[in-house]
Amino acid sequence: MSNESVHGPPDATAMAVTFAKTIGRIADFAVDLAEQLHKDLGLEYKPAPHGKKTKKSVRDPNMPKKPKTAFFLYCDTEREKAKERGENPPSAKDMAETWKNADDNVRAQYSNEQAKLKEQYDKDMSAYNAGKHHSQSGSPPPKRESPDTSSGSEDEEENAQ
Q1: Name one GO cellular component term (predicted).
Q2: DSSP of 55-116, one letter per residue?
């Protein structure tokens, strides 16, 4: 038996260490370069904490969703038609090709539907932004009466009997 380690020839460990050191030097160089670039541009340099991922901003669940495009509306109807026929839905590539070759009447139909959805979205967004602005002004939003609290006099009558 030879004196080689279980993990490979003795050179492999030395190569791995050299490789790790080289990568470290490259990373340090990149950080220095970024700092210099920010300094030259007059910007403040704030590197992300190493090893930590930045948090993705949380989407407000009350915010209206953007409307689908005409193409995606077309894809939805094509998938539904395929389901009704008992076929597998066409691939996105196939639908893109048929959309590209579709006549103007078909495209106009879906574009009109998309325009209606966009108008509704704009209305919903303006209402959402108005409510959001109102809540940021410091005063609480107007309270809505729930069905349980609107008939409070009935509860009082039952308790009196």
Answers
A1: nucleus
A2: PPPPPPTTSPPPPPPHHHHHHHHHHHHHHHHTPPPPPHHHHHHHHHH--HHHHHHHHHHHHH
43, HSE (Cβ side, Cα atoms, 13 Å)? 9
**pLDDT tens for each residue of 90-149:** 999 999 999 999 999 999 999 999 999 999 999 999 999 988 765 554 444 555 554 444
Determine the Cα angle at 141 with ends 139 and 145, to 5°.
135
Quick one: pLDDT at residue 79?
A: 93
Measured CA to CA, the distance from residue 89 to residue 100 in angstroms comes to: 18
